[in-house]
């Protein structure tokens, strides 16, 4: 389950609608009822946080978010979107990474979900991370 206060408009999540799980984008938040409106691509629905799950961050998700990939000779992998960088010290290991934008660096020592990366990206760039090209 995801904590309500960790969810931001624009975040990508998995929403469970009576057993049918779809990836969607958060379009609105109702703080009074602690409900989240998610656009699943066909329409928007309101969900309780118990019906929402994070999307695990992996190479496929980074490609979907328009990151470019660079494999380094030392076995590390760098993902880039504009001036934002993600460095995996070992290919496929999302449990130990560095992220940076300009002069701000963060060392992450646990796997992130897509919405958590989106929140880091926004805090560092003041631009919301989505599937559009960022320069």
Description:
This protein has helices at 59-64, 114-125; strands spanning 12-17, 20-30, 35-39, 44-48, 52-53, 68-71, 77-81, 84-88, 97-101, 104-108. The relative contact order is 0.17. By secondary structure, the protein is mainly β. The strands form 2 sheets. The chain has a 5-stranded antiparallel β-sheet with strand order 4-3-2-1-5. The chain is elongated, with a radius of gyration of 15 Å. It has 2 domains: 4-53, SH3 type barrels; 59-125, no CATH class.
**What percent strand?**
35-45%
Name the assembly state. single chain
Note the run of SSEs as H and E: EEEEEHEEEEEH
- Taking all Cα atoms into account, the compactness measure Rg is 15 Å
Termini distance?
Answer: 33 Å
Principal-axes shape call: elongated
Q: How many strand units? A: 10
Structural class: mainly beta
Mean pLDDT: 93
The spatial strand order of the largest sheet comes to 4-3-2-1-5
Low-confidence stretches: none
The total number of structural domains is 2
Please work out how many helical segments DSSP would assign. Answer: 2
Percent of residues in helices comes to 10-25%
Main β-sheet description: 5 strands, antiparallel
Tell me briefly what this model is.
This protein has 135 residues and is mainly β. It has helices at 59-64, 114-125, and strands spanning 12-17, 20-30, 35-39, 44-48, 52-53, 68-71, 77-81, 84-88, 97-101, 104-108. Strands 4-3-2-1-5 form a five-stranded antiparallel β-sheet.
Please describe the topology of this protein.
Elements: E1 12-17, E2 20-30, E3 35-39, E4 44-48, E5 52-53, H1 59-64, E6 68-71, E7 77-81, E8 84-88, E9 97-101, E10 104-108, H2 114-125
Antiparallel strand pairs: 1-2, 1-5, 2-3, 3-4, 6-7, 7-8, 8-9, 9-10
């Amino acid at each position: 389950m995801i904590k309500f206060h960790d969810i931001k408009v624009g975040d990508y999540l998995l929403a469970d609608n009576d057993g049918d799980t779809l990836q969607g984008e958060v379009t609105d938040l109702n703080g009074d009822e602690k409900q989240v409106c998610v656009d699943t691509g066909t329409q928007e629905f309101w969900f309780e946080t118990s019906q929402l799950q994070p999307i695990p961050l992996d190479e496929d998700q980074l490609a979907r978010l328009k990151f470019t990939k660079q494999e380094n000779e030392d076995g590390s992998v760098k993902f880039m979107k504009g001036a934002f960088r993600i460095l995996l010290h070992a290919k496929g290991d999302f449990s130990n990474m560095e992220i940076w934008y300009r002069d701000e660096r963060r060392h992450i020592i646990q796997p992130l979900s897509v919405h958590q990366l989106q929140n880091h990206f926004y805090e560092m760039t003041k631009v919301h991370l989505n599937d559009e090209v960022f320069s």
